[in-house]
Amino acid sequence: MSAPAIPSPAPAPVAPPPVETMTVKVNGKTLQVPKTMPDWQGKPQATTMLQAARCAGVDIPHYCYHDKLPVAGNCRMCLVEFGTPMIGPDRKPVLNEDGSPKIAKSVLPYEPGTPRGAIACATPIAPGMEIYADSPATKQMREAVLESLLINHPLDCPICDQAGECKLQEYSVQHGQAGSRFVEAKVHKPKAVDLGPRIVLDDERCILCTRCIRFTKDIAGDDALGIVNRGSYNTIAAWKEGAFDNNYTLNTVDLCPVGALTSKDFRFKMRVWFLKETKSVCTSCGTGCSITIGSREGVIQRYEPRENDGVNGPWMCDSGRLNYKWVAREDRLKDVMVGGRRSTWTAALKEVSAKLAAAPKGSTAVVASARQTTEELFLLKKLADKLGAQTASVARTGEADKLLVAADKNPNTNGATLNGFAAADLPKVAAGIAAGSIKTLVVFGEDVTQHGIGADLLAKLETLVVSDILPNATTAAATHLLPGAAHAEKRGTFVNVKGRLQKFTKAVEAPGDARAEWEFLHDIVLDVTGQDGFVSIEGLFNQMAKEVPAFAGLEWAKVGDTGVNVPL
Amino acid sequence: MSTKVVERKPLTAYERTYLPSFLGGLGVTWKHFKKTAPFLGNKPITMEYPEQKWVVPEGYRGAPYLVKDQDGATKCVSCQLCEFVCPPKAIRITPPGQDGKPADRANAEKMPEEFEINMLRCIFCGLCQEVCPEEAIFLQKDYSLTGTSREEMIYDKEKLLKLGGTHAGIQKWKHKLDEAAGQEVFPVETR
């Protein structure tokens, strides 16, 4: 096996221009922070106190502020006490006896004894500024803000889906007062409001941070939400009841720091503290949003977007998020079938390998799926090369949108292309079967009867090896049926439409006898080609990186949680 | 370490007849007999269990059961904290989900679809009672739990509610509802 030409290493990145910095002090620690930092759209803006504190490793609590949303500054949770260097009448800094600049703490102008905080999310830093993120005055401000937010909060955590991942709970523990002094009747607002087809709103829990309003207006581009009524009766509302319906509404559930906006799909389904979180990738389109799968005891309960600025930012679409139920479908393929009878993996793989090895060169075709992992496609290609087989994959297109959804509905079209599977070759397979030159067909993860190879053509074959997850017309016609695993049940990588290679890990077990395709493909490849060495997904990936030029230099361990870009 | 060597005296001829020890033992038996024998005017100190039952003291940690409120409604809201805290994982709750049955009392929104306690696993530690934010589960006074199969020892929601009885409480959900209804009329009632 000759080593493929490894492209010459990319030129060393040009050193970025020196960043202009200024000196600030956070909690007594002096540090240099950049004068400008990216705002929610990535444009450089004056660094805020909150960003400067983050540079110092200090987290300032906040509700309405979000990295990827315009700053509103309405929750007041990030209030901090601060000071700036004092300037004398001669416009020169006033110095202490030891020569250090004298700091004037911000105080109320009409009451100089009382500290006056500033909201860290929207206040730009100034040279020499001191931020007191845990001074007694700051703590008192936080306590007061939390007390105010909790005045009309119903405290119905036992029935609230947000409990366990609620910022109001977390900050109340970290920064709040132990007891409540409120003895009056709370203001009651509408509960279980039907905001849209996928969202329920509990107005009593809302703290009016307006994250949902800003998201849907500025990110999703659907100005559907707003605040109605006055004073204590402020409520979030859609412009018409039930009208909050775009393909990104469920992101507001993630954004909502409290349990006001909850997902109908996840409503009363499982408490979040039971969920095992697994890093994975969404398979609903070619974008391949990074996701976190929440599962409990082998059952997927929900998908959530995982922040990945190289792919999806912190968002994902509703259709992708809700597309997980098929994994737990009752009619999943669970048994290995040979000639219509239940068999075992050992017997079936032996027979498949023997049939493939015995097939005359060129009489075989392999139809792969761009829903398979890159590693599986690599193994299939290896098998096809040995057999001199005609290869093909299946294209799947739909509508794209402006934000995340791609027109390509296969998650790994580029993984298939880079491994040498092209959708354009599918008619050649059909023609080969029709002409009688192809007698053995290997199909992975596709119902070829829907794509030009009808049941009449399948009937002409001598051997039809099919691996799939759910039953269809092709699996029904298979002579050898090998049940495969969904992406949530195995490890692997996908290459998205922009060439981002991302790995995903296993969240749940495959049902019945179903096995990850790369595992049994390894056995078949070993039997047919005699090539061994892929006993683990890491080893398999590293082997693929050596042989496929686009992945040159990659290693499983070096592909981080957010993936790497590969040349297409 | 200091050790004390105990001198072992050889038995005398009288002691070697074993009579003193034998008589001493008989004496102890007779003393107890005098103290306990019913016909000597003593009260019995054992019980004819199971015909007679022990009076369980207050604070006893018997089997945990679900209770209903004074209106006969399920108090549990399926928050699953007891399931989480239960050290032997004896509790198993099926939450109602989006399409499940609504709670059988107004305003609580949620109640468990199924609530099972495996009494074979339960260690009667009382953490479920302690963690419950709704005062819906209490360790009661039942200590003799029997069954003829393992399945029988898994108590379901219906059985737990039946055995648990009623526990009158503050009914916070009802209170919230009343308060909200009060705000529907003008002028708003203040207290």
Describe this structure in words.
The complex is a heterodimer of chains A (568) and B (191). With 568 residues, chain A is an alpha+beta fold. Chain A has 3 domains: 21-149, Ubiquitin-like (UB roll) (Roll), CATH 3.10.20.740; 154-166 and 183-328, Alpha-Beta Plaits (2-Layer Sandwich); 336-565, Rossmann fold. In chain A, the strands form 8 sheets. In chain A, strands 20-19-25-24-23-21-22 form a 7-stranded mixed sheet, with helices on both faces. In chain A, strands 1, 2, 5, 6, 9 and 10 form a 6-stranded mixed sheet that branches. In chain A, a hairpin with an 8-residue loop joins strand 16 and strand 17 (290-296). Chain A is elongated. Chain B has 191 residues and is of the alpha+beta class. Chain B has a domain at 64-176: Alpha-Beta Plaits (2-Layer Sandwich), CATH 3.30.70.3270. Chain B has 5 helices and 5 strands. Chain B has helices at residues 19-36, 81-85, 127-131, 157-164, 172-182; strands spanning 64-66, 91-94, 114-118, 137-139, 154-155. In chain B, the strands form 2 sheets. A 3-stranded antiparallel sheet of chain B has the order 2-3-5. A two-stranded antiparallel sheet of chain B has the order 1-4. The mean pLDDT of chain B is 91. The A-B interface holds A 154, 157-159, 163, 184-188, 191-192, 264-271, 273-274 and B 77-81, 84, 95-98, 100, 107-110, 133-134, 176, 179-180, 182-183, 190-191.
CATH class of the domain at 64-176 in chain B: Alpha Beta
What share of residues of chain A is helical? 10-25%
Largest sheet of chain B: 3 strands, antiparallel
The fold-level CATH name of the domain at 64-176 in chain B is Alpha-Beta Plaits
Radius of gyration of chain A over all CA atoms, rounded = 29 Å
Structural class of the secondary elements of chain A?
A: alpha+beta
The major pleated sheet of chain A works out as: 7 strands, mixed
Strand content of chain B: 5-15%
Poorly predicted tracts of residues of chain B? none
Overall mean pLDDT score of chain A?
Answer: 92
Termini gap of chain A: 23 Å
